[in-house]
Amino acid sequence: MDAIDKKLLGLLQEDTKKTTKELSLILNLSVTAVYERIKKLEREGVIRNYVALLNRNKIEKAFVVFCHIKLIQHTKDVIHTFENEVVRLDEVSECFHVSGDYDYILKVSVKDMEEYREFMVTKLTGLQHIGSTHSSFMIGEVKNTTAFVL
Hints:
CATH architecture of the largest domain: 2-Layer Sandwich
CATH class of the largest domain: Alpha Beta
Mean pLDDT: 96
Strand order of the largest sheet: 2-3-1-4
Number of helices: 5
Helix content: 25-40%
Strand content: 15-25%
């Protein structure tokens, strides 16, 4: 990956709706060269996907909770079972296996506290092998980006 690829990736992270023609003018390359670079980055798995980023306030998912999970055991089967179950929960947008006092951190986005309570009572506590949970509620968003600086 050269400097032009890095600049191209930066531009795509800002706005994937830019045409190859617009990108070619910025990068001072031909449209074909830009197209070929994008295809190469896709083939190599550098570009994984193209998505629309939604405004969570507009879709009633503004209540963000970071839920820390401690499992009762740490066997391969328990971990595998928990991970297979948690990926099916629509309210969970991110799940990280972490070190420290807890085993997992979930990022949960719901409408409000009432919906979070319903999620906890009907879905999360129904998962097998959870020993304890601890929830932290987002007060304000300081930084939220999907972009990597290259």
